[in-house]
Amino acid sequence: TRTAVVIPAAGRGVRLGPGAPKALRALNGTPMLIHAARAMAASRAVSLVVVVAPPDGAGEVKSLLDAHALPERTDFLVVPGGETRQESVKLGLDALPSDCGIVLVHDAARPLVPVDTVDAVIEAVREGAAAVVPALPLADTVKEVEPAAVPGEPEPVVATPERRRLRAVQTPQGFDRATLLRAHETVTDDVTDDASMVEQLGLPVVVVPGHEEAFKVTRPLDLVLAEAVLARRRL
Ligand code: C5P
Q1: Strands, E, within 10-161: which ranges?
Q2: Residue 9: CB within 6 Å of ligand 1?
Q3: Terminus-to-terminus CA distance in the chain, angstroms?
Q4: pTM confidence score
Q5: Ligand 1 contacts CB of residue 54 (under 6 A)
Q6: Could you tell me if the CB of 8 is within 6 A of ligand 1?
Q7: CA 195 / ligand 1 centre spacing (Å)
Q8: Which of 18, 32, 60, 191 lies most in the core, judged by the most C-beta atoms within 10 Å?
């Protein structure tokens, strides 16, 4: 069976500050989305990359991918995205050919994930897991709070989950394709990652080791870190 990757890249990236859609911002002169697509195509197991573009930017994204060649073994498709990340992922899934039995979902906002992490996720799906997430232990202790009604007001702490049992999850997340499709057809709640939809079906989701360099570029400081990682790789 073939492995495809869906890259949702239709977000505006408001937290990064004003400018182009986040996926199209440059890291060392190359759009983040191109770094992310190359990171996926670096795995020999990946035969198709589906990029979900901003609804009004599909043409631009197609030209970018044409201009920055992926390896010859990797096909790509561009489809327009939706209002939410979840809708964007679903639109990407709908574009997959039927011979793709394994699908990865990878944020354009994680442009620097190493190929070993991608391969580890694919391997775990091949070995039979319905859903696989790369994840890391947390450095910070996490508190659950009662969110303030008025922004800036002190927020009461509700609980402190045991840090040892918590993981920060990254992408690519890997799935048996039929399972992820069923999750999208069944779960209507807002979610912040794809695997949680599979959890809601009552199916097991497993964790494999993530990587520090798979961090999400969200805020301005993350751009500085991403460019430093790229500079170090060139050494
Ligand atoms: O907003 P967040 O950082 O969680 O977005 C994660 C990924 O989802 C980004 O790559 C973003 O481009 C994508 N996204 C999307 N469609 C949306 C919103 C976000 O493809 N409507």
Answers
A1: 26-27, 30-31, 46-53, 75-80, 100-105, 131-137, 144-145, 157-159
A2: yes
A3: 37
A4: 0.95
A5: no
A6: yes
A7: 15
A8: 32
Burial of residue 62 (number of CB atoms within 10 Å: 0-12, 13-18, 19+): middle
Q: Establish whether residue 172 lines the binding site of ligand 1, counting it when its CB lies within 6 angstroms of any ligand atom.
A: no
Find the 22 Cα to ligand 1 centroid distance in Å: 9
The CATH code of domain 2-133+169-233 reads 3.90.550.10
Report the distance separating Cα 103 and Cα 85, nearest Å. 16
Residue identifier of the C-alpha nearest atom 7 of ligand 1: 107
Domain ranges of the chain: 2-133+169-233
Ligand 1 center from residue 207 Cα (angstroms): 22
Confirm if 113 and 174 have CB atoms less than 8 A apart: no
Q: What is the pLDDT along the chain (235 residues), one digit of tens a residue?
A: 999 999 999 988 778 888 888 889 999 999 999 999 999 999 999 999 999 999 999 999 999 999 998 899 999 999 999 999 999 999 999 999 999 999 999 999 999 999 999 999 999 999 999 999 999 999 999 999 999 999 999 999 999 999 999 999 999 999 999 999 999 999 988 899 999 999 999 999 999 999 999 999 999 999 999 999 999 998 6
